[in-house]
């Protein structure tokens, strides 16, 4: 039986891998926290599993271990950040920190990031704002991997969007979603495990729904959530994160896990922070959020329903268990981490050894 992996063990391993690739201690810690936190939420498709591919791009030259994101243009409530092709967790944290600094001064702040890459789970950056008693919104474009109504093949990315709001006695509201019916990482994970998928996740080369995840991404594309609604929101994200930032737009964005790892991918991100305290007392706001959460949770439940969940409630529960008991990482995550250790000639930790 596999032993649970402690959060500290996973963080240390990820930091060691990044340090071996030339990252500073500070940048390695920042990126590791983003990825490991994502695993504690149970979103393993966007957590430490992806580190091997990020570092492959670093070693090939498509990303810079020593990249330095910087503000290149700004106004009282906005800024544009050049990501300098740093690993995107670093660029994205810089983007949200910049948005929050603007919000401190102006009540609301917007920052756009260009010259970046796949930034992992959008929810982490929205949560950064919630931890500072702000409302946070984060988003990113991606390489075209999703069809739209009326099209047969890939037109736009499934452009993730996240929202977080602080609460008082309750856990923060946290919504993190791709604008496809499901995140691409979940299709890939199903393919790796030899599982079938629902027929509304992807469509084949003729635009017909399929349950075979192995067709994606070369012979299938993602479908938007809720049809034209998901498509419309993806266009909103593309506009705010790419068109306005100066990043690659639509077909100008390259795949972070399939494209030549020696070349930049051109992703763009956007971050919005709303300074709650500039509009009402923070305590009053949090009390109002708590009341809204409790009203929803107390609503009459449908027959057979055991509970009504608030956005993020399941993830916070998983995180609490992970911090207290460790995590049972899925085999595809463990396999990726073992591959990373092999790539870098690292000693394999006991908790990552294959079980027989």
Number of β-strand runs: 10
CATH architectural label of one domain: Orthogonal Bundle
Globular, elongated, flat, extended or rod-shaped: what is the shape? Answer: globular
Would you identify the regions where 5 or more consecutive residues have pLDDT less than 50? Answer: none
Commentary on this structure:
The chain is an alpha+beta fold and 356 residues long. It has a domain at 1-60 and 326-356: Orthogonal Bundle (Hypothetical Oxidoreductase Yiak, Chain: A, domain 1), CATH 1.10.1530. It contains ten helices and ten strands. It has helices at residues 7-20, 25-40, 51-60, 88-106, 122-130, 184-192, 228-243, 282-297, 313-325, 331-344, and strands at 70-74, 78-82, 108-116, 134-140, 161-165, 173-177, 202-204, 209-210, 220-222, 267-275. The strands form two sheets. A seven-stranded mixed beta sheet has the order 1-2-3-10-4-5-6, sandwiched between helices. Strands 8-7-9 form a three-stranded antiparallel beta sheet, with no helix packed on it. Strand 2 (78-82), helix 4 and strand 3 (108-116) form a beta-alpha-beta unit. Helix 1 (7-20) runs antiparallel to helix 2, helix 2 packs across helix 4 (88-106) and helix 4 packs parallel to helix 5 (122-130). The longest helix has 19 residues, at 88-106. The chain starts with 6 loop residues before the first helix and ends in a 12-residue tail after the last helix.
Annotation keywords:
356 residues, alpha+beta, Hypothetical Oxidoreductase Yiak, Chain: A, domain 1, seven-stranded mixed β-sheet, 10 helices, 38% helix, 15% strand, globular
